[in-house]
Amino acid sequence: METKAQESVSVSEPVSLSGQAESGILRKGGKKGKDRKFVIKKKFANENILNEIAKLNKARGVLQMQDEWFRTPPFLIPFKSRKRKEQDTQDNGEEQQVEKEAEEEEAKPVVKVRILKVMSCNGFGIGIHEPTEDKSTHENKKDWYFLVPFTLPNEIVMVELVENSWGYTIGKLVEIVEKSSESESRIAPQDIVCKYFGQCSGCQLQMLDYQHQLEFKWNVVANEEFAEILNKFPQIKVNKVIGSPNQFEYRTKITPHYNNRDHDIGFNSVYSKYRIVDIEECAIATKNVNMGLKEIRRIKASEDAEEKDVDKNKKKKKSRGGTYLIRDNVVDSTDEQGEQREYILEHNQICNERLEFGNGMVAKFEFKASEFFQNNRTTQWSIWWTHIAELDCLLYVCQNWERRTMMEWT
């Protein structure tokens, strides 16, 4: 996702952290223009990201940093606020628009970052600060990590900083300053199918052509997640990733979240797990699943409308949000009323699936909608035949090899 840099935003150098306290740092842009203390705590950090950082430090020969280092980011990020209009029902029943005071938002720092790798845990690029001509530096700037979605290894990018966390800063891609060999696998922004890509965290690699997406996933398994095991057992080979005949409209299950504050239904934002991107249609979900999503949105809108009509004094405390389940269902099944169901919305409902092997062979499965089942039926036959071949080979071994030989082989 290549975008133009905003002219009003300039490249920033580290600001002084003289206001740093032992329990955290000061965050610029607090109430009434004053700096606000923002405590960076380890318990709020993503453990998977910290593990990636530890592995990257080891690969780069960087010593493991102390806790003090993890809570001292080289850049301060202005506190972000927004104007919100809320309906306030008065005693006389009249509704008035109440606009909360909003602080003037400052421009966020934009820095140059060199991407080292793409993380396996979330698909974000992780990189370090690329020094500018001004050599003024925070002492840990060279080893502080920046997480930037939609970037690729060895790219040099301009990044707008969004949020500081324990040992890393999350940023938004503004511009690709210098491309790398990996950049050739990018597709043109106008060719990206999903209109929510770049906001929704559900998919991380749609900026790549499909073949390079598969290669990235193979590399995660072969060279990262299971590298230690594979090094001990070199006879084990990682097969190629089984690609999907359909790159879109294949997923038979989604679990969208909802937010009772903003009435959004969708998936977490790329830049904040506390914000939900409102999704009307998911590009990778089947047509039946998207029909179910429309039904969920209709039901939720009806419930929200009913709640507005309830007297505030009688209304129960509303939950902050939750998660829905939508699963595609084979249409040759019927519910208790004899009606065909193309999608299922309840966790305990029985779901039906068909698996066609060819030559007239058909396998039928029944399982609860909440239980795991391969979510891409277009690849099921390939996966099943692979495992059937493995089981057939193992059965042959059990029947023809001596027990001692088998134990040595295993």
Summary keywords:
single chain, globular, disordered C terminus, five-stranded mixed barrel, RNA methyltransferase activity, 22% helix, OB fold (Dihydrolipoamide Acetyltransferase, E2P), alpha+beta, U5_MeTrfase_fam, 7 helices, 410 residues, four-stranded antiparallel beta sheet, S-adenosyl-L-methionine
Short structural description:
The protein has 410 residues and is of the alpha+beta class.
Gyration radius, in Å? 26 Å
Secondary structure: helix percent: 10-25%
Helix tally?
Answer: 7
Sequence stretches where pLDDT stays below 50 over 5 or more residues? 1-33, 81-104, 133-141, 333-339, 401-410
Strand proportion: 15-25%
CATH class of the domain at 25-83 and 103-178: Mainly Beta
Task: State the order of secondary-structure elements, H for helix, E for strand.
Answer: EEHHEEEEEEEHHEEEEHEEEEEHH
CATH overall fold name of the domain at 25-83 and 103-178: OB fold (Dihydrolipoamide Acetyltransferase, E2P)
Enumerate the strands of the largest sheet in spatial order, edge to edge or round the barrel.
5-6-7-9-8
CATH superfamily of the domain at 25-83 and 103-178, by name, is Nucleic acid-binding proteins
End-to-end distance, in Å?
47 Å
What sort of overall outline do the alpha carbons produce when their principal axes are compared?
globular
Average predicted confidence as pLDDT? 75
Largest sheet: 5 strands, mixed, barrel
CATH architecture of the domain at 25-83 and 103-178: Beta Barrel
